[in-house]
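Chapter summary example.
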Amino acid sequence: MNISPKQFEHFCLSSLTVMRLTKPTLFTNIPVTCEEKDLPGDLFNQLMKDDPSTVNGAEILMLGEMLTLPQNFGNIFLGETFSSYISVHNDSNQVVKDILVKADLQTSSQRLNLSASNAAVAELKPDCCIDDVIHHEVKEIGTHILVCAVSYTTQGGEKMYFRKFFKFQVLNMEDIMLFSNAFYFLGSTDEVFLEAQIQNITTSPMFMEKVSLEPSIMYNVTELNSVNQAGECVSTFGSRGYLQPMDTRQYLYCLKPKKEFAEKAGIIKGVTVIGKLDIVWKTNLGERGRLQTSQLQRMAPGYGDVRLSLEAIPDTVNLEEPFHITCKITNCSSERTMDLVLEMCNTTSIHWCGISGRQLGKLHPSSSLCLALTLLSSVQGLQSVSGLRLTDTFLKRTYEYDDIAQVCVVSAAVEVEA
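The structure predicted for these 418 residues follows.
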């Protein structure tokens, strides 16, 4: 390709500079010292004392007072904000007109326009520049290409155009944190407990600004990561939310189905969408990152055709004194009416008070009934409520319910003394 001097001059009218904007880092000096009896004597120690980057009185502790700008592009992680400085400079002695700077970010799935303004600048005088700062919250992993295009018109009316490509990789969030979650549910209720574990596997501490659970439409959520002290909610992790390198933190949430869904037993059955975690953190000198997980799902326990749940039960009861519980029986079938019989079987520690083998009557599909039952315990300690049997007289099928709940049985004399 042959280029005339005039054309070459047009190619060199302006230049494009693109730099990533990142926070500075603390400079860490490497102390070099020796014993006074060694050949250098006190030379190394004196040099460190004269070094402006060291802390006075702590020269050998690798502590620094200076900030340094990054010398390379660095790493970009999923959820962080990518910031870049774009500058177009007129290197010629001519005035160029109608300068338009456009910045696009190309990912594997989409192309995003990051330019602050799409309007052209009327003219750019010699040795002047046009500056722009772009920001983008990274939401995809893999290869990203920043495409910067510049178009302008020369004094001779010739339209010029050029562009540059800047490629960088976005790393998976698992390279900066490890996430795991576990579900726990109570067999007699619809309550679900979610434990989310977050581990910092980087070499620097992180400030956990927010870790919250956005529940699905079927649930209400209660965060269990704070305690009430003197009428004020205090985080269980302390006043400072720093997560040190390789440290792990567990966040706990309790989810309860909304009333309109809890009353319909068939909706809660099967695979249930719980919600998604929203995590916000800061690193180094306030660099902010954010990540939203995909929808978390758990396999709800199968209740079968008949479900027994506890509506009310005391936490603590007295030894050999009757106490009351309220049970809820639900016909989970959507087609068949059941005729149920209730049987109560005593255990070594729990004794039922009432008539066993009584008819409960007909229970229509997806409907429920509540029963008030009376028990007493003959053994102290944490005792399990067991021994309920429901028999469907039509199918001659018996449903057994053991370990429904636990109660703490204490002596009445001990309670009076307390």
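To summarize the output: Residues 1-11 have pLDDT under 50 and may be disordered.
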